[in-house]
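Z., the sequence and structure:
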Amino acid sequence: MAFSIHSHSGQFCPGHAKDQLEDIIRHAISIGFKTIGLTEHMPRLAVTDLYPEELEPDPETSLAELAPRHEAYLEEAQRLRGKYASQIQILIGFEGEWCRPAYGPFIRSLAAHPAVDYFIGSIHHVNGIAIDYDKALYASALESARGSEETLYEQYYDQQYEMLTTLQPPVVGHIDLIRLMSEEPGRDVRTWPRVWERITRNLKFIKQYNGLLECNSSALRKGLAEPYPCRVIAEEWLRIGGRFTFSDDSHGICQVATNYTRNLDYLEGLGVRCVYTMERPPPTILEHGASTKLKERAVPLSSFRATFPKAR
């Protein structure tokens, strides 16, 4: 039973992703997915939070388009959920990006929409600066941390903790995204005691409220040696009894299930035997557009591996 809990489309993340949402869903069905979580990027509140490709031709216009686009996404996702209900379970969510504390109430309001099943809590910014877009922006974030990568990591995990304690997201996305543009992405973060203290604190809090941590294969397609999270963080998460979900964080058809075999190898090497997805009650129980409490479902990795023969 293959699935992804984290995905994006070019239709609703133009410039950032590719392909129409329906085409992505049809492709996921064709390679054996039984569940797909739709998690388009949430609207942002200020021009300063836009990515470079969103600044052209006019940043104010781009910002004004985000909220209507999000509403259009929710409408289309509900339509597709009904259309393909006999072939795949579609979960409707969004990626809640914590740019700064002011986003807390806004993310909660988006999560309260009756069509939304869940959201992913993630952090792509440190001190208001994107840390995963390109090297130039990462350098700016590093400068904001007085040029110390250790300090930047500390600030990243502190701001992540703000997000976690405020939102308690059902799924925590790419928990160690900070290493993507790092000078040494394979660094053993335990050699930085203050950073490691923050990581373990965050993991304990996620475990406390029973959140899921995604094993996200996008790190592999971006050139990192290990998925998110890296091995030492994954080992600590398992040591305290944490549970993983599974995602490709795809941004178009060509990235659906990319590196899933490597993701499975990685988890099995850690001793993981199952990952967790979520389920909605049968459609007959719900009125159109109504939300409900999702149920978790354990998926053995052996079953997962057997059901996506075309995954890369």
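The longest helix spans residues 59-83. Residues 284-290 have pLDDT under 50 and may be disordered.

Let me know what you think.
H.
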